[in-house]
Amino acid sequence: MESRNVVLVGFMGTGKSSVGKILADRLKRPLTDIDRMIEEKEKRKIREIFEKDGEAYFRLVEKELLRAAAQKLGQVITTGGGAVIDPENRRALKETGVLVALSATPETIYERVKNSRQRPLLQGGDLLSEIRRLLEGRRPFYAEADLFFDTDGKNAAQVAGLVLEALKEKL
Ligand code: S3P
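^ thats the input. predicted complex w/ shikimate-3-phosphate below
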């Protein structure tokens, strides 16, 4: 039987994509990046989807692709920061996967995302306050994961090493 998916969840800038790549490599598993699947299906960048069709449309596409991805086993799946807000998304991911939550302080997240133009939810306004506000609202959803890793002061390879160690008992 193929083993459970390893699913990375957490706020923007917590390193899900970088850690996911290392995990997929080390575990010799295919990497399924939901945000990249969305961009491939839509043939445009996430920023453009938000601008032209709004967040609600983005969430619909995200939900459809996430559900399809969660039906397969043996992958490393990376999700967008807002993917686990939806209870059905959380359920679908949990059914076939171990949920690994990455976290960081608002200040660290700020440093990591401040120069990115690819994150529509963090454009304009007072960036640090916005990160704090969104993070507070999402904390309960990330808290439903199975494993938790604080990424402050660690690079992606270090975080991946800790995740791999903890996964030995879960996979
Ligand atoms: C989002 C996070 C983004 C992307 C979209 C919405 C969010 O992914 O899915 O911009 O709601 O937090 P990352 O967490 O990979 O930046």
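Residues 13 and 111 are 9 Å apart (CA to CA).
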